[in-house]
Amino acid sequence: MILYRGKLYDNSRQSELIASLRDDLYAPLRCGGTLSPQTVINACDRLMRRVLDGEFDSVIKPFLNAFNVSEAQFNDMTALFSKEGLEYKCAVELCDGEKVIDGRIIRKRYPLGALLHIAAGNVDALPAYSVIEGLLSGNINVLKLPMGDSGLSVLLLYELIKEEPALSDYIYVFDVPSTETATLKALADLCDGVVVWGGDAAVKAARTMADVDTKIIAWGHKLSFAYAEPDASDAELYALAKSICDTNQLLCSSCQGIFVDTDSKETQRAFARRFFEILKAANENSRPADYGMRAKNAINLYNERLERHATGSEILKEGAVSVIIAEDETLSLSYLYRNVWVKRLPRERLYTLKKYKGCLQTAAVLTRDRETREEIARTLALIGVVRITSGGNMSRTVRGEAHDGTYALREYSRIVETELFPPSKSS
Amino acid sequence: MKYTRRLFGLGNIYDTKASDELFALAMRENARFQYDNCADYRRILDEFSFSPDMIRGTDDLARLPFLPTLYFKHHDLFSLPDSRMLIRATSSGTSGAMSNVGFDLKTLAFGARMVINVGRYHKLWSPVPTNYIIFGYQPTKTNKTAVSKTALGFTFFAPAKSRTFALEITKNGYELSWERVTDALKLASRSRFPLRTIGFPAYTYFLLRDLKARGVTYKMPPGSMVTLGGGWKQFYAEQPDKKEFYALVRDVLGIDEDHVIEFFGAVEHPILYTDCRFHHFHIPVYSRVIIRDPDDFSPVECGRAGLINLLTPMMQSGPLLSVMTDDLGILHDEGCPCGAPSPWLEIIGRVGISDVMTCAAGAQEYLKEQS
């Protein structure tokens, strides 16, 4: 499905429409129009209310089930699109108003221009969210849908234009497969920035595709972890375990494993055993993990057991839940779906995580002592972690929060300084 | 390997009950051979404190440590020197990595006897010259996938009058030509000799769907047959309802449902499973299936879904006697009108696909019960 100037078209019209994009894309520039954040906010707010009223349930409900999104999480997500949520976001991210410098220069934020969004397929409404961020910063947006898109993003953007027809010149959606690099390159050439979501391969592909004069804004895959003192409280560990069960470790902010502040194998083992019991309890109190995924992990963990002679890992497993007591100190992806690793990493070696600079995101710090927590948090912030939380809050959504350490709306902006017309001699 | 030789000589291919004792003896014999000749396998059995002598009957087979296909993808396990391997085969690598398996003379001899017996039971042998169309790869010296080898193998059940491959080797690698295939189909429909098609179900389905959309239909000569093998691979999601598939075969090729035969097997378990006329994969005497609960690997009773663990003493070249697949399935023992007494295996999907429930009608209830 293609969305072009507020109208839906079949994919068969793709090449014809992309050809005419060259003329149409800059339409708002021709008439010197600007898009105010308030226009976008009002349209989003009206649409969000229709979503909450259940108008799109037939499309949204299956996706919520497929991704195991609870009603509370869904409400958190929709709140981001509410008037209050978006106004707060703009207030934080676009806080620099117009400034007059030395009485003769105006320094002002402008949109980057046109953005090509290359969206990832792992979260369904994300492509639409990316475009809304582009709109809030005043940009013209071209969205390339992820493979296997369910159609939810096109629907939401189409309805958004219906709420505010002025947006029709600012939103274009194409269903170009990632393999059609020539077409994608043509789209990128028309744009000032390429916003790419996804793994290393997607980011690399965007970098090779875009010319040097095109800005790349990459929201890559991230890995998150917990850092625990051996004496962390059961309550904090339970909160962490529960968030592991609730997200199935699928989010960038989900905990993949726990580094324990110790050098001792015995301490590591005791901690892992304690956490294993807690994780089992949290699992009991959560919706069961997907059957097919449980089966897949059963095989992965059995295989891990066969490899034990080479890796030195110990595996604690019961039902769907497992803890691997590992010998290495790398930050790695877990088997997901309630399977975590526990590794030794004494505080003085925390800095070694610096090598994962590109993929650090959230770290939960589990300590009993405020000073220790602050010290660890400081080190984590220095090595590149951008969200430091308690065990249960790793995947919380907060109004106006930065995205992977930066404000998206600022990334989609540039600062323009304009000298004022020289004052006339007579005045 | 006297027990294994006797087992593969059994002609009553679905009388698993009568062969239970012999099967267990052959498994013990094979386990002992692998234990003595493959260091990695010996280590694994030792770690599980399992000795081949502990196999005294089929009930003990569930305790024999299985190896997941995943393990074979990362390790080459052989119990015979390279020089003894006459054929090498690799899995098709649907998920990237491939298993590497070798076949020695003894294994091939067992396999040949099995194929003769299975072919006889299912009336696959025929002296009538046959036109073959293979919806798959033309085998070459470099293509070691088992699928290309077995596809070629099937063209020996009846003397080949012609063989057409959908994917033929050219100087640019494999090239798919629907035109070549449709030309061959047209010729076959005018021939006095029957046609047999062989191929992945997905390729066969896509071709037939394409032909139907173009309004092309044929009436193939009597005795023609559509044979399918290799599973749906990455096309799970597009798998049609079986009834719809058979109707499509009838509409496009004029071949009735009872002449559509599906095979199932794996590089790591090269036993020829052939569906009966009710499209059930009965377990042949050369193999046993244990369905295991993914949460603790305990065997589950018939009628319940779980991981498919396949057992056979056929392979001499490596420890492939108990292999855990990546597939989920159900074993049925409610009796089949075809008369074959052994239970049949229903494959319901691959692990790790969240919408695995859509893979087969009826599986949903089984999965719900367990999750």
What this model shows, in words?
The complex is a heterodimer of chains A (427) and B (371). Helices cover 41% and strands 20% of the residues of chain A. Chain A has 16 helices and 17 strands. Chain A has helices at 14-24, 27-30, 37-52, 57-66, 71-79, 83-93, 126-136, 152-163, 181-190, 200-209, 234-247, 265-284, 291-306, 308-311, 370-383, 408-411; strands at 2-4, 7-9, 99-101, 105-111, 114-118, 140-144, 171-174, 193-198, 215-220, 223-228, 255-260, 314-318, 321-325, 339-344, 360-366, 387-389, 413-419. Chain A has a seven-stranded mixed beta sheet, with helices on both faces. In chain A, α3 packs antiparallel against α6. By secondary structure, chain B is an alpha/beta fold. Chain B is globular and about 60 Å long. Chain B has a seven-stranded mixed beta sheet, with helices on both faces. In chain B, strands 1, 11, 12, 13, 14 and 15 form a six-stranded mixed beta sheet that branches. Chains A and B meet through α13 of A and α3, β1 and β14 of B.
